[in-house]
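REQUEST ID: PR-0412
SUBMITTED BY: lab tech R.K.
PRIORITY: routine
TASK: structure prediction, single protein chain
INPUT:
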Amino acid sequence: MQPGEMRNKIESLIKELLAVMQVRKNYGPDHKLTKEAVGNLHKGLDSILSCQAEVTIGIVGDEFAFERQPFYEASKNMGNFINHLKELKIERITFLKGLSSKELEDFFGIITMDAVSMEKSGGIKVLAASVGLQFIAFSKIYLGQAGAAGEGLDINLTAKQNIQEGIDFLTRISEGINSKEPLDVRSAYFFVNKIIGNLFQNKESLFILTNIKSHDEYTFLHSLNVAILTLAQAESLGVKQEYLTEIGVAALLHDAGKLILSGEIINKKGKLDPADLEKIRLHPVDGAKVLLDSAEANPLGAIVSFEHHLRYDTQGYPQRIYGGKPNVASMMVAIADIYDALRSKRAYHEEMAPEKTYEEMTKMAGTHLEPDLVENFFKIIGVFPPGTLVELDNKAVGLVVKESLSDIKRPQIEVLYNGQGEKEKEPYIINLLEKDSESGNYKYSIVKSILLTDKYELPQKYH
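STATUS: complete
OUTPUT:
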């Protein structure tokens, strides 16, 4: 869809929002005309969300805006509507693919409230959570933020924002668990739906971020990476979106039991003593209890939390009293969990090279891990996943930017440094599947992966 065409659709969408507000005010929420107006709005949103995973509109000054561009003319006739939203402290509204007419009706039940009633009810986010909005979210506009009035078309930026939102969410979850507060599962559902949308747009952006990571927030980043890598597996197997969401939330919260543990145990260097080891081994059970205690949690979350350290051959921990092999979601989470743990630098072990990780996990297939799922996992991300720095046989150094479906050892590379170690002024993409027309041999091959150090500088877009 052309930018101008999308902008026209967004302008029509905003007008439909106002139309529903007016009809609902005149006839009430259950009238036939109100239902029809909501239906028309839903069709308009479906048309937009068939082209992209999410759409965000915002209020800048006294105008509605999309992609940082205000709708000056349309906003002239919407002054009362804009002022009402501002009184409710609504600056941005995001709609995600998967939105139903029922959720739209619940959405209007909230935004038709007056500001005083909303304040007494706890504010917009509390009300959104109370009615179970999963595909609509409200947020503030931050000055200087790229795409302030709309999420923009920069999928790399969107991926980065999703990661930061995930860290913020898991930080709140951790604080809430330790304060004995109810688990905010609704926020988990909304966040996972955003990740799913980003996967549909360009999963490589998320894969790169799972590899280029800070080690300072390992516990939270690990849970995010496991969710991303599990969703990629489930999506590749053709799982429908409603089930993808459930699997994604379960993966995101698989280590909920670890959030109860002290940082001293999690980050302890060297071998754990028996008491610490016992606490670690209890975290699957503790996590399952936390999730079962949440009225909003799906049972799958508790199952995955309990089973993610159970092996394919039913060994592992905690000990199973009955039942057969773990749930397929648990087995996908186990693969993502082990992969990210091996690929991360921790207090007690160094980061394992991706090619070595591939070898180790292949050995685990059939005992620790389900063999077909392991094979599928590496078909998705490759031996050298996006975000891996590699050295080629001509001594050039580059970053893997896209996996290869036909050969898991021959991805696409963005060459950053030439064979003499000089930084390329204009980095360029090569496909390792390319062959020399005369010899029939591959033009380039990966010799080894390289740890990201100060010696190599990545382009700003990957920071």
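NOTES: The longest strand covers residues 423-431.
REVIEWED BY: pending
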